[in-house]
Amino acid sequence: MTALPAPTLTTARLRLRPFEDSDAAALFALQSNPRVLRYWDSPPWTDPARAEPFLRTCRDIADEGDGARLAVERTSDGAFVGWCSATRWDPQHRSISLGYVYDEAVWGRGYAAESVAALLQWVFDTLDAHRVQAVTDTRNDASVRLLERLGFTREGTLREDCTVDGEVSDSHVYGLLRREWAGPPTRTH
Fold first, then answer.
1. Domain extents for the chain?
2. Which of 38, 59, 79, 97 lies 20 to 30 angstroms, CA to CA, from 161?
3. HEC letters along the chain
4. CATH for 9-134, among 2.40.10.340, 3.30.1490.190, 3.30.360.10, 3.40.630.30?
């Protein structure tokens, strides 16, 4: 594969950009919060040094042409509010996987929908993707609402496919096809 430079994308309130080494402290604060990672399939970080391999992987994803993992910051004050990614790019099948994590301080403000929609637009416009897939814990109602609001269709359930915080859990698999993408949702607040 060839390199795929991580883009910088802007929305009405947010800027999505490649991660920088200076994001390590904010990234650790996010990834060490047990409420934020409640439905994640790996435990919250306990060591700030965990940020270093994460940031290295962000660069590797771009260098290997595997997609993009982007920091999300508020344009009004530059505050780091989370990250989103489109990775595991398969150019033959034109498919990619979506992921995201946001600080609980911004939950319910539409930042996830706004930033993920911008990333999806990039995926469809720049990569000419045909399919985007996302997987979420069946108990994560906010993630389910986000995916459905963005036009994703629930395609199935993976039974007992991972262990979250010592508890076996199920995951929903969602898909969004190019022909179904209607563009960013209209803000309702």
1. 9-134
2. 59
3. CCCCCCCCEECCCEEEEECCHHHHHHHHHHHCCCCCCCCCCCCCCCCHHHHHHHHHHHHHHHHCCCCEEEEEEECCCCCEEEEEEEEEEECCCCEEEEEEEECHHHCCCCHHHHHHHHHHHHHHHHCCCCEEEEEEECCCHHHHHHHHHCCCEEEEEEEEEEEECCEEEEEEEEEEEHHHCCCCCCCCC
4. 3.40.630.30
